[in-house]
Design brief:
The complex is a heterodimer. Chain A is built from 15 helices and no strands. In chain A, α9 packs antiparallel against α14. The longest helix of chain A has 27 residues. Chain B is α/β, with parallel strands linked by helices. In chain B, the strands form 5 sheets. A 6-stranded mixed sheet of chain B has the order 6-7-8-3-9-10, with helices on both faces. Chain B has a 6-stranded mixed sheet with strand order 15-18-19-13-20-21, sandwiched between helices. A 4-stranded antiparallel sheet of chain B has the order 2-1-4-5, covered by helices on one side. About 2% of the residues of chain B have low confidence. The chains are: A mainly alpha, B alpha/beta. Chains A and B meet through α10 and α11 of A and α2 and α3 of B.
Chain lengths: 312, 485
Amino acid sequence: MSGPVSPRLLRSLLPPLSLAAILIAIFYLQPRTMSYFGLNLLLNLAVPIALATIAQMFILCVNELDLSIGGFVSLVACITATWLHDTPLLGVAALAGLIAAYAGLGALIHLRNLPSIVVTLGMSFVWLGLAVLVLPTPGGKAPDYIRALMTLKPALVPFPIIAAVGLALVVHLFIMRSAWGTVLRGAGGNPRSLERAGWSLLRIKMTMFALAGFFGVLSGMALVGLTTSADANIALRYTLLSIAGVILGGGEFVGGRISPIGAVIGAMTLALAGSFLSFLRLNPDWQIGAQGAILIIVLALRVLISRAETRT
Amino acid sequence: MTNPSDPIIRLRGVEKSFGAVRALAGVSLDLAPGECFGLVGHNGAGKSTLMNLLSGNLRPDSGSIEIGGQDVTAGYSPQVAVRHGVRCVYQELSLCPNLTVAENARITHPAIAGIGWRRRARALIGEMLDRVFPGHGISTDDVTGDLSIARRQMVEIARAFAVTEAEARVVILDEPTSSLDSVAAGKLLAHVRRYVEGGGTVVLISHLLGEILGTCDRIAVMRDGGVVALDAASGFTRNSLVAAMGSVAETAPAAARGRAALRDSAPKVVEARPARPETLSLAAHKGEVVGLAGLSGQGQTELLVQVFDHAAGTQVGGKVALVAGDRQSDGIFPLWSISQNISIGSLRQFLNGFLLDHDRADAFAEKWKERIGIRTPDVFQPILSLSGGNQQKALFARALGAPADIIVMDDPMRGVDVGTKQEVYAMIRDEAARGRTFLWYTTEMDELRNCDHVYVFREGAIVADLPRAEMTEERVLHASFRADA
């Protein structure tokens, strides 16, 4: 190792540094955001994105890709704003059913050896169609307890920050530190070895997809808690945001290399990128492109660091 | 419950076919507790199939498997095998590269769970590594993907011998020393003996006959899916083993002799120096086979890459083709056919305008298949349908078929059977006689005897420069180890 900072450390520092860079730029452009209220507003919408990113991370961990998470979160949002509000029992049953459906997708993909991209792309239309059926026109109402939770105003630290830190830590403990999580990650690294050691890959895939479904449901509920009403197209952009968030946070598409803390940070960076561009008075049409540019810059840095790593 | 002299594993008339290929034709074997059982044979003789049956990854078509006197044939699976204490170290490693050493131990030892599992996993694997490979230099928190292939192999072996709730009664080692250097291999074989003396059973599969003869109590020779010879190890010699395997007994290569004069007449085509302060430099003349010797991982591969890249400070006079050693990661395109895998090295030859002429590429692959003797009905089969040795031949065909003057080989014979090796040696000598130059990194003494000139590597530098006439095993070994270590 040469130099004062090892490339490995540098690489793990890249996600938080990117987040810090964006935050500093925002504070510089608009100093009033540097307050309890300002941060609350800035980071509010990052919470459902972070939840969806965690959902995507579980799928990426087993070398699959979920192109339906956006449609799925939209559907959950529609169900939350209608059934869960009007007839809670039906709502809870429907959401539980959705998680089971996700586990079923995992089983289907594993047993039939189907490409997850195709299956989930198809399912994205199913979720969207169901969302339109549940809520044909924008509207509905968030259940009061969700609304109350999402608008909590704890002393000192804004709620979105507490939620993000809590989410990152809980998922980190589960997937990175627990004995069970180790097996789940191993399935991404070398599935054959897991099978030879006597673990059921079917159960692992189903578990991972069910976890993704669970966090997708949380994401939809959190989203409705913030927006108070829903719409069938409310979260379609989450699909790409969630994938970008995982990658930005240091995860990789294959090999079970993931980082929940990084994923949450990546999701927040992307969410903040939108605000940053608004403060620059950029046309909103440019936002997607600019988010892409941020992604490219961070990934380019990561490649540079990896190169330095192989050289030492 | 069982008498100590009763066999721990008893196979009765086990058969297994893949399609029309009969991989195992009625094998019956008894493995006793406290013995090391050697298994030798060509690639494709059925060793791997037999081992996959023992470990529960394959089900026999007919016949029975008994463990400790209990018939487990029905419903035999990896879980059942593990429960009965049957462990396996596979040739292609089965660690999860994204997990740490300790986490990998958890994968095969489900008993390590709950609060404090990480500490127990570290202790388990760390202690076993210390016992089998003292001085291994591996931290239990290292991510396995970052370790060298030799260290990964050590972790895998230590993991198989580690004991939690499930005991390790039978450990099957498939080519365990193929990626270890001779020191680590020696430590492993010593551990195998200790383990066997403690009442355990080891099945050792290896192409290194000296290793088998020196370690095993009994040896079975396999050929064409059956056991053709089975006796105490003392009843075999190197030559009788090779004879039983059905391949030509090794003869000292005569071709290298009388070629020492090449150095004086032929032009120099490669001159390279490792990036170390104190080192000799390597030179290769046209038509020479130059060996890169030493323990594994001492900078030989880096030098080959330097030559391949035409790196600055390296003089390379001609095009270079590479034969990769790590087939799975650097060599083959696993989803492609044999033909595509062979012709990829020389696509420029088949251009028709700016399009590729597939017929010519296929004819080229077919020609090389015949010339190099790849055992397959046709070249349109997927590359993975070939046995390991034949995959390696396809890689040789790719490099030799390319319009290259210099061929660099990164320990290409890892896990290749004796017969195939002999064929490849002959081919290398032929090609060298036609004026091609070979740089050949190998860890096996026998292969160095095919070289005209040998450079010995140690800690990244070249420490000895031996012409064929002066090269002896003793001198190479002497140079491989530091005088003060």
